[in-house]
Fold:
Amino acid sequence: MTSTSRSLQELLSLKGKTVFITGGAGHLGTAMCEALAELGANVVIASRDKTKSSAVADAVSERFGVRASAVQLDITSPDDLEKVFALVEKEYGSLDILVNNAWSGKKNSFESISLDDWRYDIDVCLNGVFYTVKKAFPYLKKSKGVIVNIASMYGHVAPDYRMYAGTDHANPPSYGAAKAGVIQLTKYLASFLAPHGIRVNAISPGPFPFSDIVKNEEFIGALKAKTMLNRIGSPEDLKGPVALLCSDAAGYMTGQNICVDGGWTAW
Structure:
């Protein structure tokens, strides 16, 4: 008897698909670009720093033999987004996958954060996701596409204030509030975009500290101790989850949020 079901390799393939990823040249974004390109997707990397994103695009294209390009973008500008998505369709023919990964915020504590800092953080981290999806929707509707939003474990749980005492590190209240909003927005979009064949999921990374934090061994030790696996995350730890959610291997998944946090939020 001949099976008509697709192989896992076929389900995971993104050959011929076009991915648009915001913040794709960053700490976590680069690894996600690599994962999706390895599966055959063409990649458009959006960033405020076009020089940096162009370098990543060139490296991805050379390594995986796919088309990759960079665009300069401010995700808080609906006009910029509208122009960029029109350009993507013109250059690549379609938009199939949107990964909302861009983030920028003021590293404040509750006591130091100003009203302007709060507004800025929410505008980038939450409003920017909404603006991006809103402007991408006409194109994703055509392709019956996929949206993956990058949230955070701090959209689920509060930071432990004791970890920050006596350090130069801070966790602003705006960050977790925005990421919690992203998780709920993901569920809303999954419901209301389902009639158009669009799947919407989220990934909530745990402790994936940047290089300046990694140098603080005591703080890193505290982060490790909060996880079941007793280690911090590496960017490649996100390759599998983003590959799954962007591909047909997750064809029956929508409205979900996957925590990639070493077990942090499970105990």
The chain is about 45% helix and 15% strand. The beta strands are 18-22, 42-47, 68-72, 97-100, 146-150, 199-205, 257-260.
